Amino acid sequence: MHIKVSRDVFRLAQVFTISRGSRTEANVLTVRITDGQHEGWGECVPYARYDETLESVTAEIEGLPDDLTRAALQDLLPAGAARNAVDCALWDLEAKRAGKRAWELAGLPAPGPEITAYTLSLDSPGKMQAQAAENAYRPLLKIKLGTPDDMPRLEAVRAGAPNAKIIVDANEGWSAEVYADLAPHLVRLGVALVEQPLPAGEDDALIGLDRPVPVCADESCHDRASLPKLKDKYDVINIKLDKAGGLTEALALRSEGLAQGYDIMIGCMVGSSLAMAPAVLLAQGAMVTDLDGPLLLGEDRDVPLQFDAAGVHPSNAALWG
Length: 321
Description:
The chain is an alpha/beta fold. The chain has ten helices and 13 strands. The chain has helices spanning 54-62, 70-76, 81-98, 102-105, 125-134, 150-160, 176-188, 241-244, 247-259, 273-282, and strands at 2-18, 21-34, 39-44, 118-120, 140-144, 165-169, 191-195, 215-217, 236-239, 263-266, 288-289, 307-308, 311-312. The strands form three sheets. The protein has an eight-stranded parallel beta sheet. Strands 1-2-3 form a three-stranded antiparallel beta sheet. The protein has a two-stranded antiparallel sheet with strand order 12-13. Helix 5 (125-134) links the parallel strand 4 (118-120) and strand 5. The radius of gyration is 19 Å and the shape is globular. The mean pLDDT is 95.
């Protein structure tokens, strides 16, 4: 087999801001694996929060042997973006070789559409209210917070979208005290979930803390090895392919997480439809699906995922799997 990795840049529909900074484009790596007859592909988004760069992830992928199998890959690379793109490309290749869909190979029921969150970029309260009003027809909105001035933003979003379900992503920007202070207001404003309120290295403070709004582990949860450290801190785990290192580990993490009593959220980095396609299989029946990456782009793959009132639909085989 031959493995090729290339960089693709997708322009964002508008500036996207979280507490760590802003961006105007999505930089992704596309992996193609060919066997001379079939080609499978996958996508990853290297993330600086996890000490990943386009260059470092490319080097990891280019260092893999040609006689690669999906089982061997799990030991050759750690959980992360590099393994994700290769793992998903191998799933796509296996599906094409077998003349079946990836969900069939995984032993999963036929997937259907899932309602996905739509993320509102961090901005001033007035601009966030305008964003919320523009997207008030969407059933689920996700708000990027994580600053000392979050309450006016949250109040503004609720005013702009009075009927939407709201989840909040604090991006490690709060402390236990801030969460405790905000919790009654989160309940009052109908917030259904808070993602990663505390820094991953400081989340022991969640043990014993009253959590009237469920708390979801994002940066604290990567793969199955993360689970023992989440006990008594979190109610939900956010599974992202780029953190887990591909669909193979993500499926196992979902199964083990459910067995341990966690609810499941399926999230994403800001990437194209190719990155979201495998995650749609994971998202079936999840408590929260957050696969809006393509909705934030000003351009996408040639065969994009379909988004409509029913949610994000499973991929066409021409895209992936």
